[in-house]
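Suppose you are handed a protein chain with no further information: no name, no annotation, nothing but its sequence. What can you learn? This example shows the usual starting point.
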Amino acid sequence: QLVQPGGVLVQSGGSLRLSCVSSGFAISPYTMMWFRQSPGKERELVARASFESTDYADSVKGRFSISRDNVKNTADLQMNELKPEDTGVYYCAARWLKEYWGQGTQVTVSS
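A reasonable first move is to predict its three-dimensional structure. Written in structure tokens, the prediction is:
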């Protein structure tokens, strides 16, 4: 399973770093991803880190950065220049032969 922190409140324009840590498996062969579900919207992929590359949703490109540490078995999402529309529940996920999900972290960006 993947373990995420609890909910966070941050002001618009601020920064936040979310971290998820795997419990019970090594993340090295997995593609690590961060999804977001905003109020009234479907869950969307915001960032993905495979072995050799990263990619981002257009809405977060240039502001968010995903990183992974295969020794510590963590995947982080650095979020800068946060906007109220970044508010939502953020989920960490790992995908390879199996798929694992974190429990979600509520991020609220106040204007």
